[in-house]
């Protein structure tokens, strides 16, 4: 499931948001992190870890069955860049959640930013995805980098703007 979703993001996200220029899979250096690296039109980058929870009734190691459902209604893409041309983690969260609604996936039932969930305590920035088969994917933000910077070695210490 995680590999399939990673490949889906690599293929679908660059065409679902005009400020997404590339999406690549990545693997952490010394931590078991796995996910995608998103490059924005400014050259700034964001690394997201991908983890997940199985569909209800699915046992660990059992193949998950994809379920199709209605395609999400696309929502307006919010502004990614602030007046200085940089991205904040919260702007990236809102933009990527909206971009997922533009992918026309029949497997995604819901895509949301962690901070946009009403009644939830403030959380580390990231995305949540609920699939039609009931499986859940979690994409916390792991690294940020301004154009021409590398991602650094301190996971989950995000720059306030990048």
User: End-to-end span in angstroms?
Assistant: 30 Å
In percent, how helical is the residue content? 10-25%
- Total strands: the figure is 7
Which outline best applies? globular
Low-confidence runs of at least 5 consecutive residues: none
**How many helices?**
2
Structural class: alpha+beta
Order of helices and strands: HEEEEHEEE
Computed over alpha carbons, the radius of gyration is 15 Å
Average predicted local confidence, pLDDT? 91
List keywords for this structure.
162 residues; alpha+beta; 7-stranded antiparallel β-sheet; 7 strands; 17% helix; 28% strand
List the helices and strands and how they pair.
Layout: H1 2-16, E1 20-27, E2 34-40, E3 45-49, E4 51-53, H2 89-101, E5 108-113, E6 126-131, E7 136-145
Antiparallel strand pairs: 1-2, 2-3, 3-7, 4-7, 5-6, 6-7
Structural write-up:
The protein is of the alpha+beta class and 162 residues long. It has two helices and seven strands. The chain has helices spanning 2-16, 89-101, and strands at residues 20-27, 34-40, 45-49, 51-53, 108-113, 126-131, 136-145. Strand 6 (126-131) and strand 7 (136-145) form a beta hairpin. The mean pLDDT is 91.
């Amino acid at each position: 499931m995680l590999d399939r979703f990673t490949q889906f993001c690599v293929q679908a996200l660059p065409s679902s948001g005009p400020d997404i220029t590339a999406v690549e899979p990545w693997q952490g250096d010394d931590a078991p992190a796995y996910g995608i690296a998103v490059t924005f039109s400014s050259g700034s980058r964001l690394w997201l870890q991908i983890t997940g929870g199985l569909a209800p009734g699915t046992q660990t190691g059992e193949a998950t069955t994809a379920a199709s459902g209605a395609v999400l209604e696309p929502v307006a893409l919010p502004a990614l860049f602030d007046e200085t041309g940089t991205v904040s983690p919260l702007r990236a969260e809102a933009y990527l959640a909206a971009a997922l609604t533009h992918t026309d996936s029949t497997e995604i039932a819901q895509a949301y930013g962690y901070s946009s969930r009403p009644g939830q305590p403030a959380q580390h920035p990231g995305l949540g995805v609920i699939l039609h088969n009931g499986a859940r994917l979690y994409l916390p933000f792991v690294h940020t980098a301004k154009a021409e910077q590398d991602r650094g070695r301190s996971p989950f210490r995000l720059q306030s703007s990048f």
